[in-house]
Specification:
By secondary structure, the chain is mainly alpha-helical. The protein has one domain. It has 8 helices and no strands. It starts with 9 loop residues before the first helix and ends with a helix. The C terminus is likely disordered.
C-alpha cells in the first residue's frame, strides 16, 4: 500500500493542534452539557473510533478526511481515558503520566524491534499502521495527563501552560532545523501538541473565574471544527491534484 500518513507540513501541525483542542472541549461538552457523563462518553466515542479506524485500515492509501476524523476521535478517547483514571478511579496525575509514558515507550520499543524504524514516512503495511495508531493513542493520553499535571497539580494555569508548551515545541522545532533527529523531534512535538491544544481549548472555553476567556465548549468546538473541515478540504483538493498529475500514479 501507499504511505498512510500525510506529509508533515504547517497545515499538518495546525490540524493536529486544532484536533487536540476539539478533543478537550468536545469531550467536556458531551460529558457535561449533553449529560452523557464520562463513562458513557468514553464508550460511545470508543465505539465510533473503532468503526472509523477500521475504515482507515481498509484503505490502501492516505485519505485526508478519514485520517483526520480518526485523529479527532483518538483525541477525544485519549482525553476520556485520562479523565476516567483521574476522576473516576482517583489515580494521581503523577502516576497516570508515568504509566502512559511507560506504555508509549513500550509501544515504540516493540515497534522498533519488529520493524526497525519509527518513521512515519514508511507506514506502508497494516502492522506498521497498527503500531502507529497505538502510539498516537498513547501520545494523546500522555499529553492529556501531562497537561493536567502541569496546569492543575503544578499550578501553571491555562495561560502559562499555553506559553510553556508552546515554548517547548518551538525549542524542538529549532532543534530539528539545526540537525536534530527527525524521528525523535517529530514524536516529541506530537506529544507536546496535545497539552498545548488542551490548554488552548481550556483557555478559550473555561469561564473567567477559572482563568479562561469564557467562550464556552460549544462555541470553541464549533469554531475549531469549522477550521479543521476547511483545512482538510484544502489538503484533500491538493492531494487529489497531486494524485492525478503524478505519472507514478
Amino acid at each position: 500500500m501507499l504511505n498512510k500518513v500525510p506529509e508533515v507540513s504547517a497545515i499538518f501541525w495546525a490540524i493536529k493542534i486544532l484536533s487536540t483542542t476539539v478533543g478537550e472541549t468536545g469531550a467536556d461538552y458531551l460529558a457535561v452539557h449533553v449529560g452523557l457523563g464520562a463513562s458513557r462518553t468514553a464508550m460511545c466515542m470508543t465505539g465510533l473510533l473503532v468503526a472509523v479506524l477500521l475504515m482507515q485500515l481498509s484503505r490502501r492509501a492516505y485519505v485526508p478526511w478519514i485520517y483526520w476524523l480518526t485523529v479527532v476521535l483518538v483525541s477525544i478517547v485519549g482525553t476520556q481515558l485520562t479523565d476516567l483514571l483521574t476522576d473516576k478511579l482517583e489515580i494521581s496525575l503523577y502516576i497516570s503520566t508515568a504509566a502512559f509514558a511507560c506504555a508509549l515507550a513500550a509501544t515504540f520499543a516493540i515497534w522498533f524491534g519488529v520493524e526497525r524504524t519509527l518513521s512515519i514516512h514508511s507506514i506502508v503495511t497494516t502492522r506498521r499502521e497498527l503500531f502507529y495508531w497505538t502510539a498516537i493513542l498513547f501520545t494523546f493520553a500522555l499529553g492529556t495527563a501531562a497537561g493536567d499535571l502541569a496546569t492543575e497539580a503544578l499550578g501553571l494555569g491555562f495561560q502559562l501552560g499555553v506559553v510553556a508548551f508552546g515554548a517547548l515545541i518551538a525549542a524542538i522545532a529549532i532543534s530539528y532545523h539545526v540537525g536534530g533527529n527527525p524521528v525523535l523531534t517529530f514524536w516529541l512535538a506530537y506529544i507536546l501538541t496535545r497539552p498545548l491544544g488542551a490548554e488552548l481549548g481550556d483557555l478559550l472555553s473555561q469561564s473567567r473565574e477559572y482563568g479562561g476567556i469564557g467562550l464556552g465548549t460549544v462555541l470553541t468546538s464549533i469554531v475549531f471544527l469549522t477550521v479543521i473541515v476547511g483545512l482538510v478540504a484544502r489538503v484533500t483538493f491538493e492531494h487529489r491534484g497531486t494524485y492525478r498529475t503524478d505519472p507514478a500514479q
